[in-house]
Amino acid sequence: MGSDHYFTAAPASPENLRSIRVSLAGRELDVTTAGGVFSPDRLDAGTAVLLANMPPVPPGGHLLDLGSGWGPITLSMALAAPHATVWAVDVNERALDLVRRNASDLGLSNVNAVLPADVPEEVTFRTIRSNPPIRVGKNVLHDLLEAWIPRLDERSDAWLVVQRNLGADSLQRWIGATFQPGYSVFRTATSKGYRVLKVRRHGSLPTEPIRID
């Protein structure tokens, strides 16, 4: 990828479109990926861990894939919940183009692949599912989560997968210390060097302080 990163807005590296076969939502699928995006040659291990350790997605409403890449989480949610609207959010324009291509190829009309600023401010989410871009740096990552986690609907959850040796435990502590009462954060699974974290937004009138388990 040269000097490009998967969080580069407009990768300058060759696109090099390729087709890979992946298992998503219980189906074997051929999808298109490209150079200059995250994990273009396979379903990355962290995303696989998240998909294997999260509950079914809500059947309707707005669902968010934060840091979508070429779209494995988005496509999984859109396949599983055809009556929901799935928002794929990324800063990488090439990644968003791939999400749109893959959604179209799979006949999915319930996917919006957009830049962060293009999600209407009034939209809130019944769930957030994310393999967040850890390598953007701690400050940028924290800003990202502070912007999006409060957009959970009440009594809704965000599910994050983070590599243990890239700060999963410290991120869990930061979430617990940062968000106001009315949220809780739990580690729900550990697999293949990854942690799955569940961030719960409770009702609008919290009755207990934040818990970190």
What does it look like?
With 213 residues, the chain is α/β, with parallel strands linked by helices. The chain has one domain: Rossmann fold (3-Layer(aba) Sandwich). The protein is 24% helix and 30% strand. The protein contains five helices and nine strands. Strands 5-4-3-6-7-9-8 form a seven-stranded mixed β-sheet, with helices on both faces. It has a two-stranded antiparallel sheet with strand order 1-2. α3 links the parallel β4 and β5 (111-114).
Helix content: 10-25%
Mean pLDDT: 91
List low-pLDDT spans: 1-5, 205-210
- What is the alpha-carbon Rg in Å? 16 Å
Q: Between the first and last Cα atoms, what is the distance in angstroms? A: 39 Å
Strand content: 25-35%
Shape assignment: globular
Count of the separate structural domains: 1
Strand order in the largest sheet: 5-4-3-6-7-9-8
What is the third-level CATH name, the topology? Rossmann fold
Q: Based on DSSP secondary structure assignment, what is the total number of beta strands?
A: 9
Count of alpha and pi helical runs:
5
Described by strand count, sense and barrel closure, the largest sheet is: 7 strands, mixed
